Amino acid sequence: MQVVERRTPLGAVLSAPLASMLLALAGAAAGLLPTTSAAADAIWTYLMPLAAACYLLESDLSQLLSSASTTLVAFLVGAVGTLLGTAVAFWLVGPRLGPDGWKVAAALCASYIGGSVNFAAVSQALALAPGPVLAGAMTADNCVMAIYILTIMSIPAEGRRDSSSGSNGGGSTGQRPAAVVTAESMALSIAAAALACTLGTQLAAAVGMPSLGLALMSVLASGLAVLGARLAAGFRSGQVAASSSSSGGSSSAGQASQAAPPASPFTGAEALGGSLMMLFFATIGAAAGSLQALRGCGWLVLFILLQLSIHLAVCLAGGRLLRLPMQSVLIASNANVGGPATAAAMASSKGWPHMVQPAMLTGCLGYAIATALGCAMGQWMRGWYAF
């Protein structure tokens, strides 16, 4: 898909993530791909965090504070939009959802503040029994969420866009040549990303908050990126100094500088993460491919469409009113609806690696607050209609 994106006009319009999702959706709808599988679970559980960590190993942390603060504000605006959208949608469609409609609405409200993890948590907290209602809600959630992610990814957002490592040539005389991807840098990238994922998961489990695994992983991966860059820079400076003292020639020093390792030992990590992210987007598309499962869920689909339409309207209006960057607004909305995984994937695939960590941190904040907000919303809506 990345090759198609770079070399064909249609791919440039769709982008690799959108093309991956659409092809997987079509394959699942045609019965060629399963909508759920152990392989898809493995991609969500292992490959997506590994891919996100790879992106963070080459991310520019100089923009972290500014991007994180604006993304946090946009995320809170999006949460308000979800609460408002849930209230309006339930007021209009609630009687059509049945006796357990308020529970479904509460679970969907939590899902679109923090992610699918909160959908399951609220369903369990409100005793929404497994059955056709819950299955229909989950199917409608997956399908409409995929459409929503496709929609916000197609919205243009001007701003900083980082090219992948090594894509810029050394055209100007004052620049160092582009870093070269080597087997060593790829091996170091995979090892560092795996280390960050493992430690993040274990630390989150140790403190009794497994949902913070991605947030801790992002902090650890960013720390490894800074540490690796400093070690590489120190090694390069040492080589230059040694060469200068031994030869006494400036040309030798310049040659040593050219031969020294790049500023980061993780060159190529971003490209590796991009390839893994295509698998992740394909699983989202495949999960939405069981369109026949939506039979009888028309009112649920309408409810979610109303809910997300109001959410997006509030996000865009709030972002414009508060003068927030469109990148932050879109990433925050993705973090609300899809969680940190899809938000980080969108940031990386759009060429915004500086937005990956804010996406994860705000998404994990959603994990922390969405269940309580969803349950509170459910209790408030419980008495609206009598059945």
UniProtKB/TrEMBL annotation:
UniProt KW keywords: Membrane, Transmembrane, Transmembrane helix
Record field: transmembrane: 38-57, 69-92, 104-121, 133-157, 177-200, 212-233, 271-291, 298-322, 359-381
Top-rank lineage group of the source organism: Eukaryota
Entry keyword Repressor: no
The keyword Magnesium belongs to this UniProt entry's keyword annotation: no
InterPro entries per the UniProt record, alphabetical: DUF819 (IPR008537)
Record Pfam families: DUF819
Name of this protein: Uncharacterized protein
